[in-house]
Amino acid sequence: MSPSRIARTYRRASREAAPELPWVLTLSDEQRLLFRERGHVLAASLLQYLDAPQPEAAAHHLKEASGSAAGYGTVAATLGLSLSQTVEGFLRFRAPFHHELAVAARRRGFDTAETTDLLETAERAMDRLLVATMTGHTRAVGKGGRPRPIAKRTGEDRGA
Fold first, then answer.
1. Any alpha helices (H) in 79-111, and if so which ranges?
2. By the 8 A CB rule, do 104 and 6 touch?
3. Which one-letter DSSP state was computed for residue 28?
4. 20 to 30 A Cα–Cα from 151, which one of 12, 88, 107, 115?
């Protein structure tokens, strides 16, 4: 599994998720790019964590992924997304990652025990990344006060 394959999966998931996450439609192309860039770095770091041969290297990559996740939360707060919206966005893109892991395990001929271990390890890492995302959001809100809702910000930007 490669970061580019994950990116394709996320683009497909993004198109499918947009109608279910109306706040995504209020984001500008530039704002979506901020999330996309952070998501690519996060996915690449997570893949490196899962592929790391040594525990020290794995810990390094998970820490890197956690930093990216915190940045994702910070950007979300800065753009005025609520914590609920931020978590909703994170969870929406968690499922395609797990799906691609399962596909990769099947392609590589992993047995049931290997596949289960891979998916459980990824699940634990995702839990940690979700907490980092929430922490990044909470810290950003604490530093700058309560952000305005994204819909109001984009409405003002359009002259409404």
1. 83-107
2. no
3. -
4. 12
